[in-house]
């Protein structure tokens, strides 16, 4: 299929303005005639539901938690980017655009990224107006810090709780609309299918997680903002109920899934410490502003950090990348940590850790200053590891954190299914093969507050022949049947192995063969292993409890069943991309210095997969990427 990204014509600086003018507008009096379903209440979904309600649409908003404000966005620590240039340190829309395209290893769409950089400035204004307590300088100006992949300070933050504060802002706006009756909130509902009528997305089917009831909801358009799928690895920094099922159901109904193999591994997480862990904890990248990363210069040196003299410490990022130092992008920092550990220089009991050391910063600025900047993160580290990071270096190691792949969307954020939109981490759009820090919150809020309100109006008013339908339509009946069958099938397995155990094994396969580094043999092996594990799951999974009750095992089983199908797609995508770029590092394609080596000649495209059913290979569709403004070059942070 020929993918049409619907990128507006004209100079890149004017595309969004021109497009907003060209898009048809729904007359204010007509907006109340349209029902919009928004699945997800994180920064993307919460912002969208609030804004669409404010505009006058009837919004139905869904989430799996007991409150919209428990969406995973609440966990975001470090900050949100915006090209405000308050510091006069050389930032601009153009520089943010440039850094993001380059950081994503030239695998994102230029037009989208430029719009993101433009809109980033409005997000901060909106946040301030909502009362987000962003950190401020003495004179009252909003403070900024730097993040990986940038040489300017453009990251706005509220200590280490930026996501939480931004989510509270969106939640307050959302609550206003709930109270006004424009948003109907459905908590503890899990979307299990999207309903298509005449090829258009016209509703969803959900399971009420309290009563087990299967529910039908119709609308004129459906917006998915259901987050990322990092949890497919079992161990990740994501909240444990993050999943792929909404996006994957949409994929099975015809929405293409783009670049599933691009996983971001975050370099500064608390290392894995045992086999009974279910979650990993991120230490924000902002810590690398003041913390220096090092390992012993000599392999096998097991002395405590304090006993290793300065001359025997290897500050490998500072030595190798003098321009960016500890603030290289995440893929580069992660790979270098792995390289040092593989060479026997890893620290701690497992040897799978490096130091993040604040001693110099504390000597320079004093403990109070460092405490004010990162206090809650230091406290969190101490609670988990029982070590005081003010006194001894933190130990960190890379962990799965974010997924750049997602549903393919055009410039309007519409998937290949008309009327089905995808936003935030659930779409593939703006980060290419690697996401720079503080850019996910930026994208989620840009999509929710400043893009979808225009583009969904363009769709609804754009002569798409969207007749009114009700949930009595046979398409809803079919969808309910499909959902119920799958639940019945799960409940009748009656096996012996827990769902968590399957998930854990799947995660290990992916980490070993489709993780920080991949190679063709490993990927082939992983595919066979995943198929075998999936077959075993459907014969031997143990799911206690009842269908029509609160049943977290059943919820989990449904998600793991989807992960078991989706994981194969990830591996296939990784196998087909015979190059290395950003979060996809195939060991067969690297420079002499061990950096990712792209093949722009053959792979400068977004890979959009089209489902052909569970037992058939999906079809690969390519959206060629053109780089008119940021020259395709080998990425260098030296
Ligand atoms: C520990 C941590 C720290 C981070 N720090 C930063 C940071 O400092 N800066 C930054 O830019 N990014 C950060 N990120 C990334 C960022 O937090 C996420 O990418 C972003 O918040 C995702 O927002 P979202 O709205 O797309 O999805 P989410 O916030 O994940 O929301 C998903 C929503 O969808 C709902 N949902 C999911 N599936 C279903 C379903 N089937 N049915 C119904 N509802 C469903 C959920 O209930 C939820 O409401 C961090 C991530 C982690 C893990």
Automatic annotation (TrEMBL):
Catalysis: reaction(s): a quinone + succinate = fumarate + a quinol
Entry membrane topology: Peripheral membrane protein
Known cofactor(s): FAD
Catalytic residues, chain numbering: 330 (proton acceptor)
Biological processes, Gene Ontology terms: anaerobic respiration
GO molecular function: electron transfer activity; flavin adenine dinucleotide binding; succinate dehydrogenase (quinone) activity
InterPro entries with a match to the protein in the record: FAD-dep_OxRdtase_2_FAD-bd (IPR003953), FAD/NAD-bd_sf (IPR036188), Fum_R/Succ_DH_flav-like_C_sf (IPR037099), Fum_Rdtase/Succ_DH_flav-like_C (IPR015939), SdhA/FrdA/AprA (IPR030664), Succ_DH/Fum_Rdt_flav_su (IPR011280), Succ_DH/fumarate_Rdtase_cat_sf (IPR027477)
EC number: 1.3.5.1
Cellular compartments annotated: Cell membrane
A GO-annotated cellular component: plasma membrane
Primary site of residence: membrane
Any Pfam family hit: FAD_binding_2
Domain FAD-dependent oxidoreductase 2 FAD-binding intervals: 35-441
Family assignment from sequence similarity: Belongs to the FAD-dependent oxidoreductase 2 family. FRD/SDH subfamily.
Coiled coil ranges: none
Protein source organism: Desulfonema ishimotonii
Descriptive protein name: succinate dehydrogenase
Residue ranges of every copy of the Fumarate reductase/succinate dehydrogenase flavoprotein-like C-terminal domain listed in the record: 503-637
PANTHER family per record: SUCCINATE DEHYDROGENASE 2 FLAVOPROTEIN SUBUNIT, SUCCINATE DEHYDROGENASE FLAVOPROTEIN SUBUNIT
Keywords (A to Z) from UniProt: Cell membrane, Electron transport, FAD, Flavoprotein, Membrane, Oxidoreductase, Transport
């Amino acid at each position: 299929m020929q993918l049409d990204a619907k990128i507006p014509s004209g100079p890149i600086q004017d595309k969004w303005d021109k497009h907003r003018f060209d898009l048809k507008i729904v007359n204010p009096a007509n907006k109340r005639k349209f029902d919009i379903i928004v699945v997800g209440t994180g920064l993307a979904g919460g912002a969208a539901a609030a804004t669409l309600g404010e505009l006058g649409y009837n919004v139905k908003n869904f989430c799996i938690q007991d409150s919209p404000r428990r969406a995973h966005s609440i966990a975001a620590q470090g900050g949100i980017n915006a090209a405000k240039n308050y510091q006069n340190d050389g930032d601009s829309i153009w520089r943010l655009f440039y850094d993001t395209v380059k950081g994503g290893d030239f695998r994102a769409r230029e037009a989208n990224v430029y719009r993101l950089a433009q809109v980033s400035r409005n997000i901060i204004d909106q946040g301030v107006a909502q009362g987000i307590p962003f950190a401020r300088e003495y004179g009252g100006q909003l403070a900024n810090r730097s993040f990986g992949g940038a040489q300017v300070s453009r990251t706005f933050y509220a200590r280490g709780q930026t996501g939480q504060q931004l989510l509270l802002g969106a939640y307050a706006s959302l609550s206003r609309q709930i109270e006004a009756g424009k948003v109907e909130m459905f908590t503890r509902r899990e979307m299990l299918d999207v309903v298509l009528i005449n090829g258009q997305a016209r509703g969803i089917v959900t399971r009420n997680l309290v009563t087990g009831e299967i529910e039908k909801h119709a609308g004129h358009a459906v917006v998915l903002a259901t987050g990322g799928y990092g949890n497919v690895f079992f161990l990740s920094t994501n909240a444990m109920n993050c999943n792929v099922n909404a996006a994957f159901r949409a994929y099975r109904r015809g929405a293409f899934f783009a670049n599933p193999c691009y996983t971001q591994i975050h370099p500064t997480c608390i290392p894995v410490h045992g086999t009974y862990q279910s979650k990993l904890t991120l230490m924000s990248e902002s810590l690398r502003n003041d913390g220096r990363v090092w390992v012993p210069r000599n392999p096998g040196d097991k002395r405590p950090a304090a006993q290793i003299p300065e001359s025997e410490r290897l500050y490998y990022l500072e030595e190798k990348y003098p321009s960016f130092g500890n603030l290289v992008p995440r893929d580069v920092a992660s790979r270098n940590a792995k390289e040092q550990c593989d060479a026997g220089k890893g620290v701690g009991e497992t040897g799978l850790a490096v130091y993040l050391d604040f001693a110099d910063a504390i000597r320079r600025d004093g403990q109070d200053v460092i405490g004010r900047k990162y206090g809650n993160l230091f406290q969190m580290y101490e609670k988990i590891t029982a070590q005081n990071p003010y006194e001894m270096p933190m130990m960190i190691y890379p962990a799965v954190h974010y997924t750049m792949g997602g549903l393919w969307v055009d410039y309007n954020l519409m998937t290949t299914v008309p009327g089905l939109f995808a936003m935030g981490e659930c779409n593939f759009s703006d980060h290419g093969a690697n996401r720079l820090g503080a850019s996910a919150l930026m994208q989620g809020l840009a999509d929710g507050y400043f893009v979808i309100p225009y583009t969904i109006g363009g769709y609804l008013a754009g002569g798409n022949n969207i007749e009114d339908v009700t949930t009595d339509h046979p398409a809803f009946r079919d969808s309910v049947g499909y959902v119920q069958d799958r639940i019945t099938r799960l409940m009748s397995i009656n096996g012996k192995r827990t769902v968590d155990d399957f998930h854990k094994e799947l995660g290990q396969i992916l980490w070993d063969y489709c993780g920080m580094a991949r190679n063709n043999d490993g990927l082939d092996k992983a595919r066979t292993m995943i198929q075998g594990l999936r077959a075993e799951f459907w014969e031997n999974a143990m799911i206690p409890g009842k269908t029509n009750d609160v049943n977290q095992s059943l919820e989990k089983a449904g998600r793991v069943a989807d992960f078991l199908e989706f994981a194969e797609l990830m591996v296939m995508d990784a196998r087909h991309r015979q190059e290395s770029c950003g979060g996809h590092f195939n060991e067969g394609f690297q420079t002499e210095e061990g950096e990712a080596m792209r093949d722009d000649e053959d792979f400068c495209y977004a890979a959009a997969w089209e489902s052909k059913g569970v037992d058939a290979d999906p079809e690969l569709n390519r959206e060629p990427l053109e780089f008119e403004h940021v020259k395709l070059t080998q990425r260098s942070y030296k």
